[in-house]
Every structure is written in structure tokens, then in C-alpha cells.
TrEMBL record:
Gene Ontology biological process terms in this record: phosphorelay signal transduction system; regulation of DNA-templated transcription
Record's protein name: Putative ATPase/DNA-binding winged helix-turn-helix (WHTH) protein
One example GO MF annotation: DNA binding
One protein family per Pfam: HTH_77
Record key words, sorted: DNA-binding
UniProt-listed Gene3D superfamilies: P-loop containing nucleotide triphosphate hydrolases (3.40.50.300), Tetratricopeptide repeat domain (1.25.40.10), Winged helix-like DNA-binding domain superfamily/Winged helix DNA-binding domain (1.10.10.10)
Domain OmpR/PhoB-type: 1-99
Ranges of the DNA-binding region feature: 1-99
């Protein structure tokens, strides 16, 4: 056997190991490949592409990956980049092995046949290089190593790779224990496999004597069903045969003396893969493509297939056997159909290799094998835990398990690789792999225990969320979210079951009501409305059953429908119903919520006079509330309404007082009761008032801080609110188009992801103004006019007058003066009828610019009148920003140079 020797180092290419003075130096398999390639070409420049092509022949790899392995080699060799003794870098070209290398011959060790091992070639292995290298290192240090993992994950495959002739020079003995039914027969099976005839009463003594001091690596494959017997056997035989080492594979550790455990993780899978190049970076996808290629006689992953393959691998949790079985189905089904069909993976994932062990021929057989070796309490527990679709805590598990010995049962299931544990985020959490969960869920149904178990989970979640509603007002929002957001998956599962054909809708009603704060805190508006609609339907058919819950549900249904652009009257009707029930049962809290919502509706419809009436009504009722924050919220409502009425100085003073009082509160967590974070909403209107009062820098600073705060507290509705009502319009009004572009992009992305249709329309309108500023009037109107129509139809008129001013300017720029004038005058008429005044001065200014574009004598005099009115309104309202715009317009008109317009003229 040939070895490469340089300095104190020796490379054994067959065993793929690096030794320093005879001691093995741990290296990953890719790193050793790189080293062997460089050493065999010592003195030659090897380009980056040559090295990558040799080491990763069928996989796309970034050159940065090569640099990582070069760095690992230098560390192992004690080399430096500045003064290299072994590997020199040629910048921009590649690497050269600069040490003298000599080749030496070493007699090969005769390898024993592998008694009992399946005569099977090792398939290509993906994503296990580091694991195999780690096992090689560990088995050289410890005499007993167990590879542990769930069924089908690839334990035997890894063991075969470790013991392959090109990696291992020890004598190999392979014992397959999968067919051993009687645990007491383990020593007999081993003796038979190695050809030992019993000569004493203790057969283990004979086996130990057979091995003696020989360097033997014995593989005990599939130990899980006879684990206790195997543990006793290995302890005794290892104590008597000093040259023997044992590599075991099992779904749980042996728990034998001196055992080291290597838990085999699932293959890495992509969360998403928009392109084939992205997908092929993950071992799970590489395995799928390899097996698909073999199955179809040729397959290359395309960009179109990549998202489907990524979904398949993710839904199969990176379990190698399941992925192989899935790829094998491509003979009869397409990629997209296969991804869809995996909801019934036990029917689809069949037809494994004929030479595979029976338990590996189908996915169900694999899980049957794991299930049958469980004790009865463990079987019941894994079935009951299947009600959790994702991660769960020990406390949650205790709530659904009929057997209350939770910790012991979960520990046993974790040990048997049926439950995955994660302690990386503080409290340990658990989950079942997707295929295991589906199997256990079916078993739960077959046992007739679904209703009882789901009922226990529903009651647990309801109690938790009911406590959470109170904790919401006493805990920081970040803590509340972290503690409760992980329950969303379970909540969805229970609601689907409760309102389904075989469920209990009364439990669904209770859970929906208790979960309302969670829905709103996490901005899960669509899901909330679906559940609320089901719950209301149930209660409406049972008059008087639970009026308090009905009130809360109507309140939830009536929350301003920022997610939708149709039937706004439904929201008003729902709030009116909620208010009537709240008054009937004397619930001050929900009376305040309903009045607040009706105020929001009036403001959204650009009717600030009506809004002021609701704001006053709220403030009067807030005096009787047990929560002193309600009075502060009332001040915010009043301050905001004053802004829309054009009273900017009063707005500024009111909101500064409101924010000061709010900040002084020991507890400030009201984003759920009144939809948005109060600090954010207060600063939105304060920023707008400051801009109008001429304090542009202060206004933009308020906006920036409010945006960042909304991001920090992770409240999407508050973030969209500040972007739509302050960040986008004020950056545009300030002329900072780069900032406006960034804010509009943020608003567009968030509103699209959350289906917040109204604010999405706002984003389109703001983008239309950018088109106007760039002189693209056609693009401006094409984007602006349809969005305005949607907003008008949906009843969201809050910014309609301002958007009309943009449309009027675009129409005038196209010479459509009549249309432009009608647009501006329509906006002015609305202001006069509703009391809206915040941009009235700007509307008269825009009207004047349209008239000036007409250029007739009459239009010039009318323009002068409009500018005079604009100046008077701006000065009366204290709107310095609008006044500056009007004066700039006046100074730009030569006709008015000799006779300046003044407010008193």
C-alpha cells in the first residue's frame, strides 16, 4: 500500500487519514481529499477550479468553501499563510504543495470477510462526510460507539461507509440483528456469524477467546429491539477481548459502560429553493436528484422543479429512506404531483429496493418496526403527542398525555429517536418528525382517542391564552410573544379540528375568544377572521348561550379591515353590535373598544367632525375605566382628530402631553386592545403636525425612531401604520425621494405579505407620486387612478384628498386642465363638507397651479384668488410648510411680481 510522507506527516490514501508521527490527526473527508490531491501534485500549481472539480465532481461549490478546507489543513499541519512550509497560495490562481513528498510502500493488512453483512455496494453518500470522519476518530479513541437515529435516517449506510475497505484497515465483522426475535439469542447469533462453536457454558467467553487481542471492528447493526441484551453482551465481550472495538447502530443508545453516542441528524434541507443551484447545496436534495437520476435513467434538476423538490425534502424531514422512496415514485408521478401527494406519504412512499430489508421497503414498515418495540405507555404517549404539529414543551406534553409520568415517557421517546429534543433556546422543547407524527396521528385515530386528546390540548391552550390576556398588560411584549407565539401551530390544529366535522365547536369558540390577543399581537388577521366567523355562526344559532363571548367575537370581526378593500360597512355593523352588547352587560372595556373603532372608521372615511364626537365620547367614558391608560388613549384620539381638522399647534401640544404621560406609566402594553402600539400611533400624528408647523428635521426624526421602534417590537400592524401614514408621505413632502423609495418598498413588502390591501393601495399611490416627480405622468396616472378607485369603493378616504392633488397635477401636466380642475375642486368640496382641513391650503395651491397652466386672463385671476385663500388658510392653521409652498408659487409667477399677494388683500 502506498503512503505519502512529508516532514513528520504521513498520508494513508487508502485509509484516508493523516498521521503526525504515527498519531491520527482528525480531518474532514473533503479536507483530506484536498490534501491528497495537492500532495500527489507536489510542486505543481493547482488552480481553484481544478481542485474543486476533483474534490466535488458532481456538486456546485463556491470557492469560499475551498478556502475553508485549506484553512483547516493549514491548522492541522501547523502551517501559516505568510511563511508556508506545506501549502502556498498563488493569489488569484490557486495553491501549490511546496514540501518535498516521498512515496513509501507499506504491506496491506488482510481484510476479513464481513460475516453476516449484506453483500451490497455502498451507494453514494450525501451530507455525511463530517459525520463519518467524526465516527472514525471516535472509534479510534473509544471501544464502543453507537450511531443513533430514527428509522431510515441512514445509520447502517454510515456504518458501511466507516467500515469500507478504503477507509478501515481493521478486520471487520458485521452482525445484522434485525431478524433476532429472542434477545437471549444475541450471543448465539454473533457466535454463529463468526464461526465459533460453543465450548463452554458461557458462549461469550468463547467469542472473546476467538477475538483475543486481534484488531477487530465488530458492527452490531439494528440493536434497538434487543438493546438490553446487546448492552450486557458488549460490556462482557469488550472486557475480555482487548483488541475488539464495537460499532453499533440503534434507534436508542445501549447505555452500556464506556459507550460513546453519535446521534445522526437528518440531512440538511432548504427552507426554500428558488433555483436548482440553490437547492443543490443541500444534501437532501442531492440525494433526491441522485436517486431520481437512477430511477428515470437520467434526471437533471431544473429551476422549475427546485421548489417542489425542496418542499418534498423538507416535508420528509431530511430522512434519507423517505427521500429515496419519494424519488422512486417518479416513474409514475411528476415532481409537482409528488409534492402535493405527500399528505398521504404512507400510501405514496412504497416500492423500495427489492434487496432492502423488509422494514426499509416502505415508510410504513419502517415506522411499524419502531412502534412495535415500544412499551404500551410509550405507544400511547407517541400517539397522543401527535396532536402537536410542531415544537411543544414538557408542560404542554403533560396536558395531553393520559399517563402523567411525562418526563420519563418523553425521555424514553427521545432516547428511541421518535421525539426530537432541542435545548438551544433555554427551556427544552420537543417535536415529532413529520412522518412520525402522521403515523402516530393515524394510530391515535385507530385507537379512538383523537377527541379525548384534542380536547385536553384545547383546554390547555384556552387556559394558557386566558392567562396570557392578563399577562399581556403586565409583561414586555417581546416576552409575551416569545412565550406564546410557539403555540400558534397547536392553536391552528385545534381550531381546524374543533370546527371540523368530527370536532367540538364549543371548544373552538372558547379557544378563539381566548386567542384573540395572540391573533392581534402577531397580526394573524386572516386566520382570526376565519375562526371568528365560525365561532359567531355557532353562537348565533344558540341565542343567549354566551353573550360576553359573542361581544368579543363581534369586536374582533369589526376591527378596521385594513386587510380588505370590500364591504367596510360590515366592520361598522359588527362594532355597533359589539357596542350594544357591551352596554347591555355593562362592559366598559368593550364599550371603549367599540367607540374607538367607530372613531377610526370616521377618520378613515375622512370625516373628522364626526370623529371628534366619538373622541369626546371615548374620553368621557374613559374616566370610569379602571385602566388609567384609557384616558391617555383618549388624548391621543383627540390630538389625532385635531390634526385632521387643521389645528396643528393644538395637535402637537396634545400629543406631546399624551406621550409624556404614556411613557410615565409603569406598564405600557396596549397594542392589542387598540390595535396599534400607542407610542407609535402618537408619534405618527406628532410627526405630521411637526412637518406642517415647519419643523421638518424633527418630523423626520420622529418618523425614523417610530419605524425602528415598530420593527424592534415586531408588531407588523404598527410598522405598516407608521410607514403608510407618516414615513412615506412625509419623506415625499420633504423631497427626499431616496428615503421615500426605501419606505415605500418596505410598506409594499409588508402589506403584500400580510394581505393588508388598503395600505398596499397607499403604497401604490405614493409610488405614483414618484413617477410624477420623474416626469412620468402616464405611469403616475396608470398607478394612481385604479388605486384611488379601490380606496374610494372600500371607504378608506383618509388620504384621498391628498392623492387627488397628485392626480390633478399629473392631469394638468398632460394638458388635461378641465379634468385636473375638477379633481382639485372635488377634493376641496369634500373638505368643506367634512371638516377635513389638514391639506386644504395645499389643495388651493394645486388648484392655482392648474389655472395658471390654462394661461387665460380669467384663469389667472382665479389662480390669484386660490393662492390668496391658500395663504390665508395656511396662516390661520399655522401650517408653515404649506405657507412656504404658496409663497414659492407666488414668487415663481411673473404676473404677480409688481403686486404681491397677501392674506389681507
Amino acid at each position: 500500500m502506498e503512503e505519502l510522507v512529508f516532514g513528520p506527516f504521513t498520508i494513508n490514501a487508502n485509509r484516508r487519514i493523516l498521521l503526525r508521527n504515527g498519531v491520527t490527526i482528525p480531518l474532514g473527508s473533503r479536507a483530506i481529499d484536498v490534501l491528497i490531491h495537492l500532495a500527489t501534485h507536489a510542486g505543481e500549481l493547482r488552480t481553484n477550479s481544478q481542485i474543486v472539480k476533483h474534490v466535488w465532481p458532481d456538486t456546485f461549490v463556491e470557492e469560499a468553501n475551498l478556502r475553508v478546507h485549506i484553512s483547516a489543513l493549514r491548522k492541522a499541519l501547523g502551517d501559516t499563510q505568510r511563511e508556508p512550509q506545506f501549502i502556498a497560495n498563488i493569489p488569484g490562481r490557486g495553491y501549490t504543495f511546496v514540501a518535498q513528498v516521498r512515496k513509501e510502500q507499506r504491506a496491506a493488512v488482510e481484510l476479513a470477510a464481513v460475516p453476516g453483512a449484506p453483500d451490497r455496494a455502498i451507494s453514494r453518500i450525501f451530507g455525511r462526510e463530517e459525520t463519518i470522519s467524526s465516527i472514525e476518530t471516535q472509534i479510534s479513541k473509544a471501544r464502543l460507539l453507537t450511531v443513533v437515529g430514527p428509522g431510515g435516517i441512514g445509520k447502517s449506510t454510515v456504518a458501511r461507509a466507516v467500515t469500507s475497505p478504503d477507509r478501515c484497515l481493521s478486520e471487520i465483522v458485521w452482525i445484522d440483528l434485525s431478524e433476532v426475535a429472542n434477545p437471549r439469542l444475541v450471543p448465539t447469533v454473533v457466535a454463529s456469524a463468526i464461526g465459533v462453536l460453543a465450548r463452554s457454558e458461557n458462549i461469550v467467553l468463547d467469542i472473546s477467546a476467538h477475538f483475543g487481542s486481534r484488531d477487530v471492528l465488530m458492527v452490531l447493526d439494528s440493536c434497538e429491539h434487543v438493546v438490553e441484551s446487546v448492552a450486557s453482551f458488549v460490556e462482557e465481550v469488550l472486557s475480555r477481548a482487548p483488541g475488539l472495538r464495537i460499532l453499533a447502530t440503534s434507534r436508542e443508545p445501549l447505555r452500556a459502560t464506556g459507550e460513546r453516542v453519535n446521534r445522526l441528524p437528518p440531512l440538511d434541507t432548504p427552507l426554500s429553493a428558488p433555483t436548482a443551484r440553490d437547492a443543490l447545496r443541500f444534501p437532501a436534495v442531492q440525494l433526491f436528484v441522485d436517486r431520481a437520476d437512477a430511477c428515470l435513467g437520467g434526471y437533471k434538476l431544473s429551476d422549475a422543479d427546485a421548489p417542489h423538490v425542496a418542499e418534498i425534502c423538507a416535508r420528509l424531514d431530511g430522512i434519507a429512506l423517505a427521500i429515496e422512496l419519494a424519488a422512486g415514485r417518479l416513474e409514475t408521478i411528476g415532481i409537482a404531483a409528488l409534492a402535493t401527494s405527500l399528505t398521504d406519504c404512507f400510501r405514496v412512499l412504497t416500492r423500495g429496493r427489492r434487496t432492502a430489508l423488509p422494514r426499509h421497503q416502505t415508510l410504513r414498515a419502517t415506522l411499524d418496526w419502531s412502534y412495535t418495540i415500544l412499551s404500551q405507555p410509550e405507544r400511547a404517549a407517541v400517539c397522543e403527542l401527535s396532536v402537536f404539529p410542531g415544537w411543544f414543551t414538557n408542560d404542554a406534553a403533560s396536558s395531553v398525555l393520559a399517563d402523567r409520568d411525562t418526563e420519563e415517557l418523553i425521555a424514553a421517546l427521545v432516547a428511541k429517536s421518535l421525539v426530537v429534543a432541542d435545548a438551544s433556546q433555554g427551556e427544552t422543547r420537543y417535536r415529532l418528525l413529520g412522518t412520525t407524527r402522521l403515523y402516530a396521528w393515524q394510530k391515535l385515530g385507530e385507537a379512538g382517542e383523537t377527541t379525548a386528546t384534542m380536547t385536553r390540548l384545547a383546554e390547555y391552550l384556552t387556559a394558557m391564552f386566558e392567562r396570557g390576556e392578563h399577562e399581556l398588560y403586565s409583561s414586555p411584549l417581546s416576552d409575551w410573544t416569545r412565550d406564546y407565539a410557539q403555540q400558534v401551530g397547536s392553536m391552528r390544529a385545534v381550531l381546524d379540528w374543533a370546527f371540523g366535522r368530527a370536532g367540538d365547536p364549543s371548544l373552538g369558540v372558547r379557544l378563539t375568544v381566548s386567542a384573540l390577543p395572540l391573533f392581534f399581537r402577531l397580526s394573524l388577521l386572516d386566520e382570526c377572521l376565519v375562526a371568528v366567523t365560525h365561532a359567531i355562526s355557532y353562537l348565533e344559532n344558540r341565542p343567549g348561550l354566551d353573550e360576553r363571548s359573542r361581544m368579543k367575537l363581534y369586536a374582533a370581526l369589526g376591527w378596521p379591515q385594513m386587510r380588505a378593500t370590500a364591504a367596510p360597512e360590515h366592520g361598522v355593523a359588527a362594532w355597533t353590535t359589539a357596542l350594544a352588547i357591551a352596554e347591555e352587560i355593562g362592559d366598559v372595556d368593550h364599550q371603549l373598544r367599540a367607540i374607538w373603532a367607530l372613531w377610526v372608521d370616521a377618520i378613515n372615511r375622512a370625516e373628522p367632525r364626526l370623529g371628534f364626537e366619538y373622541a369626546d365620547r371615548f374620553s368621557i367614558l374613559a374616566a370610569s375605566s379602571s385602566d388609567r391608560t384609557d384616558a391617555i388613549v383618549g388624548k391621543r384620539m383627540r390630538g389625532a382628530t385635531l390634526h385632521w381638522l387643521g389645528r396643528q399647534a393644538e395637535t402637537r401640544d396634545q400629543l406631546r402631553q399624551m406621550l409624556q404621560e404614556y411613557e410615565a406609566l409603569p406598564e405600557r402594553h396596549h397594542s392589542i386592545r387598540f390595535q396599534f402600539d400607542q407610542r407609535v400611533t402618537g408619534r405618527i400624528i406628532l410627526a405630521r403636525a411637526l412637518w406642517l408647523l415647519g419643523e421638518e428635521d424633527n418630523a423626520l426624526r420622529e418618523v425614523e425612531e417610530a419605524v425602528q421602534y415598530a420593527i424592534n417590537i415586531r408588531h407588523d400592524l404598527s410598522l405598516c401604520n407608521v410607514l403608510a401614514e407618516a414615513a412615506c408621505p412625509l419623506s415625499l413632502l420633504s423631497g427626499d425621494e431616496a428615503l421615500a423609495t426605501r419606505y415605500i418598498g418596505m410598506l409594499k413588502d409588508h402589506t403584500k405579505a400580510l394581505s393588508l390591501d388598503v395600505w398596499n393601495c397607499y403604497a401604490d399611490c405614493f409610488k405614483a407620486e414618484l413617477h410624477l416627480r420623474a416626469g412620468r405622468t402616464d405611469a403616475c396616472l396608470q398607478q394612481l387612478m385604479p388605486s384611488m378607485a379601490i380606496l374610494r369603493k372600500s371607504g378608506f378616504l383618509l388620504f384621498m384628498t391628498f392623492f387627488q392633488s397628485i392626480a390633478a397635477q399629473a392631469l394638468a401636466a398632460q394638458g388635461r386642465h378641465t379634468d385636473a380642475l375638477e379633481m382639485a375642486e372635488s377634493a376641496i368640496a369634500h373638505c368643506e363638507s367634512s371638516g377635513e382641513r389638514w391639506c386644504l391650503a395645499e389643495l388651493y395651491r394645486v388648484r392655482a397651479t392648474v389655472l395658471l397652466r390654462q394661461g387665460t386672463t380669467d384663469s389667472m385671476f382665479s389662480a390669484e384668488d386660490s393662492l390668496r385663500l391658500a395663504l390665508e388658510i395656511a396662516r390661520k392653521d399655522g401650517s408653515v410648510a404649506w405657507e412656504q409652498r404658496v409663497n414659492k408659487e407666488i414668487s415663481a409667477v411673473p404676473l404677480f411680481d409688481e403686486q404681491p399677494i397677501s392674506a389681507s388683500r
